[in-house]
């Protein structure tokens, strides 16, 4: 070995471990995705309400109520979507194996 190839700051060997992501808890996935969707609703719904107020018109009150309802509907849809996707992943992972991740 040449002296230029030796680096004393690096460990002598680096070993990678392969892990398989075999199961996802559907309710936990639903809670996480629902929370993410709730944050997204908190960001986008106020802008939607401002657009509705700027547009005006006779239907503005109903549109604002609909936009406010999105604050409840959007996280609920995210929760249900997270549960469904996690369940589908678990089915597929059982059949063909889950994601394989290399950890160092």
From TrEMBL:
The chain crosses the membrane at residues 32-53, 65-91. Keywords: Membrane, Transmembrane, Transmembrane helix. This is DUF3566 domain-containing protein. It comes from Botrimarina colliarenosi.
